[in-house]
Amino acid sequence: MALFLVQHGISAPKDVDPEKGLSELGVDETNTIAPVAKGYGIPVAAIVHSGKKRAEQTAQIYHKALGLKNPMEAISGINPLDDVRIFAAGIDPGANLMVVGHMPFMEKLVSYLTTGSEETRVYQFQNSGIVCLDAGQGENREPDWFIKWTLNPNIA
């Protein structure tokens, strides 16, 4: 039972790419970290992304590296300013889903799931990095989320 959250790779400036796709560095960092995730055997069953070019490109790199058969899917509700409570209410803790999205949504989602408050900052994402959340059963059989591990392209 896990939820894998990924901030998209570093994007190109708008004057270079109006759709803000991945920069060369963003592609390189994602191509570096995705095979490491594969090497650890993380059990991702499916990947969803926001539909924005940089998130889709990041998801494609992870999808290929992890050798997933299920197609990726663009979903709504995970854009930078979307309400994390709405998304959180629909999470299946047993789905082993990877979500590729944006700041501040991703950080607020981690905060909300682990503390109940989206304003309590508990983790700072790195572009292309993964935060793995796991859930035990809390009171009323609701998921009790915690950060299980993180994997990032840079340690500094």
Q: What is the class in the CATH system?
A: Alpha Beta
- Total domain modules: 1
Q: Based on the structure given, which CATH architecture is correct? A: 3-Layer(aba) Sandwich
Work out the helix count.
4
**Can you tell me the overall shape?**
globular
Q: Kindly name the structural category.
A: alpha/beta
State the fourth-level CATH superfamily: Phosphoglycerate mutase-like
Largest sheet: 6 strands, mixed
Order the strands across the largest sheet as they lie in space: 3-2-4-1-5-6
Strand count: 6
Stretches where pLDDT falls below 50 for ≥5 residues? none
Distance from N terminus to C terminus (CA atoms, Å) equals 29 Å
Query: What sequence of helices (H) and strands (E) makes up the elements?
Result: EHEHEHEHEE
Mean pLDDT: 95
> What is the CATH third-level topology name?
Rossmann fold
Strand content: 15-25%
Which bin fits the share of residues in helices? Answer: 25-40%
Write a brief caption for the model:
With 156 residues, the chain is an alpha/beta fold. 31% of the residues lie in helices and 22% in strands.
